[in-house]
Amino acid sequence: MIDTEALVEQFGLTACIQCGKCTGGCPVSPKSALNPRALVYQMLRGEGFELVSREELWDCTTCSTCGLRCPKGVKAVDLIIGLRGQWIESGKIPTTLRAPLTATLNQGNPLVLPREDRSLWADGLNVKNVAEGADVAMFVCCENAYDPRVQPMPRALVNLLRAAQVDFGTLGLEEQCCGSEIRRLGESGLYEYLRDDNLDKFRQAGIQKMVTTSPHCMNVFKNEYAGAGFTVEHYTQMLARLIAEGKIKFSKRMETVVTYQDPCFLGKQNGIYDEPRAVLKSIPGVKFVDMDRSRERSVCCEGGGGRMWLEGTNNKVRLANDRVAQALETGAKVLATACPFCFLTLSDAVIATGHENDLRVMDILQIANEAL
Description:
CATH class of the largest domain: Alpha Beta
Number of strands: 8
Strand order of the largest sheet: 2-1-3-4
Oligomer: single chain
Largest sheet: 4 strands, parallel
Order of helices and strands: HHHHHHEHHEHHEHEHEHEHEHEH
Low-confidence stretches: none
Structural class: alpha/beta
């Protein structure tokens, strides 16, 4: 049994008016037992709550739509993260999470791959270490660094930054997980270790400005690393500015219709909607069209909140499949992403739904790099 009274106070749940907007906006609720409104109600009533029987807590993608929709500012997502934390503290960690959490502690990444392979994505590119002196630190997400399917994205960013004559470098093998999804899985101790260790490394390297390949990294550095002492932006923000300043010019045309998946951690949680679209619209030949559910109304791809490593907890939740269908309705031939999680989940969904010949998933970095 858990202390519901303490949770009510910790997460300000007494402000809840039970309007149901959180559950109505939750992309997972229609396909899961997860019900944010009912969850908060149970806490307020002080009902007996057995974590072990509530596996739906792991279905949450932490897209934060619940908190954004709440007229009273109650963040059910924070309650869910808190409950996950208690679950982990009890030692009853979901089987599929054990390896990623252990690997993050030991190897600095949740993909269970060696720390010394962190920079393999940059082989042959001669990217300098930011500690040698650079205006901008380029931070590469664990997925981008290790997964061959998304390694082309940081390589493309290197080409684009060099085309714009930006002085940049990376942390090399000193780079490790940002801790964003570790925190959202409820492993607060591991998250705090990563945060403090990263901040020490950033200060030692003298980092003042940073650009990230992932919205998740950008969000955690910007909003959850207290006293970071540096500015951080997502690559779409930097590219949009460089294009507007005339420092990046495209010489090739891409004659196709493109739509765009708003990443939750870029759009809903940080209000970055215009810059990705500005980059796409600047590419010669691109006809851009939005999906019906876009910007603030966009639907999560289901990759966040640790869902990338929780495969099997709820096989009914397949939000990416829905997004592929919605992208096809626009007549688009390319579904653009700006997040490695979105790219991976949507690419898998295209295959799972049999639309490999109808729709191509591409990161904006790939599209921009091909147009140079």
